[in-house]
Design goal:
- The complex is a heterodimer.
- Chain A is built from 10 helices and 8 strands.
- Chain A is of the alpha/beta class.
- Chain A is globular and about 60 Å long.
- Chain B has one domain: Beta Barrel (Porin), CATH 2.40.160.
- Helices cover 8% and strands 51% of the residues of chain B.
- In chain B, strands 1-2-3-4-5-6-7-8-9-10-11-14-15-16-17-18 form a 16-stranded antiparallel beta barrel. A two-stranded antiparallel sheet of chain B has the order 12-13.
- The chains are: A alpha/beta, B mainly beta.
- At the A-B interface, helix 3, helix 4, helix 7, strand 6 and helix 8 of A face helix 2 and strand 8 of B.
Chain lengths: 313, 452
């Protein structure tokens, strides 16, 4: 009887210990990514040794995600949480991490992966004040929309996965190299398309595409938002319409979440063509992966500018 | 012009030029047009791979120019005013690096009232001014406080510590804080979907229900998309604060509903589960209880009019939320049913208000409920409708109902205006209609949590 009781106790202890222990080396790493772009990149680098869930689906306003029970469950069971950082996910990641109570993904744990570390952000405010709108103290966080962003994020993902699974490091490196090589091939085409973009003028709803615009020398003559996160006033719209007419700006960029009445009003008043671009993978058709998404962004802009679109690889 | 005057003029001119050249960029930008339009921003190049340079005060220590301009320093004297400087090491006892995150909330309202009881009129005022502070104490505990100034009084509405060192999903919360009951009792009035807490909550639990005590809560997962949370709490002092406006003559004694002896605790319990419904929906179901095992009614004129009384309020809540594909538009609909059992109230039924025997304590089970539907068509505009009905603790079990329609417009995430039209229909006081304009602003740090 005593032996049976001891076995039962030991069994229970083992069960409890296994529940709290991090995933063993041979098991697939449970990863959660805040945006589908990161989920795609983690999948590319991690291959079959990871399983990935994304919090955002793609069309959402990434600054205003709503936490769902499944997000809480996923983060509570995760070995790693991949986020863009630069305060992109400030509205929900702190609450999610705090609520999920998973030590694997607490700040400073190896599983808390800030993928923007090392990225030099643009638009870092010199003075932090709400007069500038809902600004991000560390600068523009939409680095996933920079043509160089995919490779950069892949580097951060490789570092994190290798740290979490040292024994699989070579496997991850091989997959990372393959992914980056495919990005390089795609970038040759993107550069060919983007070479025709220099000096073109656009207006955007939110400052989401600034890395992209900067990369190709596209001139932003204004934004529909009066400041980041602040909806336009009638005066601002009137001013913007004047500027667009004066500058002969005929293209208005918007994301799926910001295709609203303000955009329609400006487009109607100026005759500008509205281009809906994804703000992350899955935001529009043909953008399921990061490479596909960038293909689509380049193609849609080339189409609206009337510049050549070489065939995809 | 003498040579001396010439030298002075030249020196002044040179200093003036130097000063103009040293005006920080941030100051120059204050007169610039809005960055949203009319000006092509010069975007800085993004460099990959390079580590970020130190920012802010650390920049000077790292050999970069100080964005605040030149710091005055007496030659030969240590620059004690700097928070950090190269080679100086630890220089001050008064570092503010670990200060809590502070925020201020201003909540004001103006209203026009038309009442059958004759209490008509216009009014406007600051409903509350809140100061909040939050900070981690160590890796296992964080604390916060909420101080409120209301009508020339300052009160600590909440001051509590959250301890998470028990591991996994357990939290101990100690101090003074709003008790865990239903979906709406834990939050502050300015955070509500509409102007006030629903009538039934105000009547059975109070406008705000802060307790001083201890609460344990924990949660677990069921499958991939369901979470279940529960909590139990014990409070040495849980006062039900009821505002005069909410009271009819027969319910006035509710404001004295509080335990009076140290060994009489108030207990709370809540269990709730929420789950994904499809890709866009969330459903939540919860049950709550607040028990006062022993308390007494006290009036100013007669003293204790009932002793060794008990009261328990049970609640059952259900909420369904739906968020659009772009997370811009959303619907939420919900309802909460409350039952108040035990001694609910007392009223003067005799002639002598100083004689405790002339009061009657009511011991009936009372029921009330509220339901609402909200729709936000974008991040900045939402409308809603709320209905609440409650049985009052009086001999006739009179009914009061309240209908509210409200529109909320956010100028930004940090301030908003709300228009409310409300109709209160009481068996005792007749109808009262109100039109209210509410303005709320958040200054400073603010955060979002999981609302469950």
């Amino acid at each position: 009887m005593r032996t049976a009781l001891r076995s039962l106790l030991l069994g229970c202890l083992a069960l409890v210990a296994s529940a709290f222990a991090p995933a063993a080396e041979g098991e697939r790493l449970k990863c959660v990514a805040t945006i589908p772009d990161l989920a795609d990149i983690v999948r590319e680098v991690g291959g079959e040794r990871v399983e990935v869930k994304s919090i955002a689906k793609g069309p959402e306003n990434l600054h205003a995600m709503v936490i769902r029970p499944s997000h809480l469950v996923a983060v509570s069971n995760a070995d790693a949480l991949f986020q863009v950082g630069l305060s992109l996910e400030i509205a929900y990641v702190p609450a999610l991490v705090e609520g999920a109570r998973n030590k694997n993904v607490f700040p400073s744990a190896p599983g808390f992966v800030n993928c923007s570390i090392g990225w030099k952000a643009i638009q870092v405010p010199e003075v932090l004040t709400r007069q500038a709108g809902d600004v991000h103290p560390q600068g523009n966080p939409h680095l996933n929309l920079d043509p160089r962003g995919g490779a950069f994020l892949a580097d951060r993902v490789l570092e994190a996965l290798s740290k979490l699974r040292p024994a699989s490091s070579d496997y991850f490196k091989t997959r990372h190299a393959d992914f980056v090589a495919r990005i390089d091939v795609a970038r040759t085409r993107w550069d060919e398309i983007g070479a025709h973009f220099k000096g073109r003028k656009v207006v955007e709803y939110h400052q989401e595409y600034d890395y992209f615009l900067l990369h190709y020398g596209i001139e932003r003559v204004g934004t529909v938002e009066i400041r980041p996160g602040i909806p336009p006033t009638p005066n601002h719209l009137a001013h913007l319409i004047d500027v667009m007419k004066r500058e002969k700006c005929e293209v208005l960029l918007t994301a799926p979440w910001s295709k609203n009445n303000f955009v329609d009003r400006v487009a109607e008043a100026t005759g500008a063509k509205v281009v809906v671009l994804p703000s992350s993978c899955g935001g529009v058709e043909d953008s399921e992966t990061w490479i596909k998404m960038m293909d689509t962004v380049h193609d849609r802009l080339a189409k609206v500018f009337g510049t050549p679109i070489p065939p995809r690889q | 012009m003498t040579r001396t005057r010439l030298c002075v003029l030249l020196a002044a001119s040179a200093l003036s030029s130097l000063a103009r050249a040293q005006v920080p960029q941030a100051q120059q930008d204050l007169t610039a047009p809005p960055q949203g339009a009319g000006k092509q921003e010069k975007l800085q190049p993004a460099l990959q791979g390079a580590p970020l340079p130190p920012q802010g005060p650390f920049a000077q220590a790292a050999g970069q120019s100080n964005p605040q301009g030149t710091v005055f320093q007496t030659p030969g004297m240590p620059n004690m005013g700097l928070r950090i400087s190269s080679g100086m090491g630890q220089v001050t006892r008064f570092s503010n690096e670990f200060n809590p995150a502070f925020s201020f909330i201003v909540d004001a309202a103006a209203e026009a009232v038309d009442a059958d009881s004759g209490q008509d009129g216009l009014d406007a005022g600051l409903r509350s001014f809140e100061l909040t502070g939050n900070a981690w104490i160590d890796p296992y505990a964080w604390a916060y406080f909420v101080g409120v100034a209301e009508e020339e009084e300052i009160a600590v509405e909440e001051a509590a510590i959250h301890y998470i060192g028990l591991g996994q999903n357990h939290t101990l919360r100690a101090g003074r804080f709003f008790v865990d009951f239903g979906k709406q009792m834990q939050i502050h009035v300015h955070e509500l979907r509409t102007l006030e807490r629903p009538l039934v909550l105000r009547t059975y639990l109070g406008n705000e229900l802060a307790g001083e005590g201890l609460q344990w809560d924990s949660w677990t997962t069921v499958g991939d998309s369901t979470a279940i949370r529960w909590s139990i709490g014990a409070f040495a002092n849980a006062l039900a604060e009821v505002e005069e406006d909410d009271l009819t003559s027969s319910t006035a004694t509710i404001e004295t509903l509080a335990p009076r002896r140290g060994d009489d605790f108030t207990y709370t319990a809540r269990v709730t589960g929420f789950t994904d419904v499809g890709d866009r929906g969330i459903f939540q179901l919860g049950a709550s209880a607040r028990a006062l095992p022993s308390f007494e009614f006290v009036t100013e004129d007669a003293g204790a009019v009932g002793t060794d009384l008990s009261n328990t309020v049970f609640g059952l809540d259900a909420t369904f939320g739906w968020v659009g594909a772009t997370s811009v538009d959303s619907w939420s609909v919900g309802a909460e049913l409350l039952a108040s059992t035990g001694e609910n109230g007392a009223a003067l039924t005799g002639a002598d208000s100083t004689n405790p025997a002339d009061y009657t304590v009511f011991d009936e089970d009372l029921f009330g409920w509220f339901g609402w539907v909200d729709y936000a068509w974008d991040r900045f505009n939402a409308v809603g409708f709320q209905y609440s009905q409650v049985e009052l603790p009086d001999a006739a079990q009179s009914d009061v109902s309240e209908i509210e329609a409200y529109y909320t417009h956010l100028f930004s995430e940090f301030h908003r205006i709300r228009l409310v039209a409300a109709l209160n229909d009481s068996d005792i006081d007749g109808e009262t209609s109100r039109f209210v304009v509410q303005y709320t602003a958040v200054l400073g740090a603010h955060g979002h949590g999981v609302n469950w």
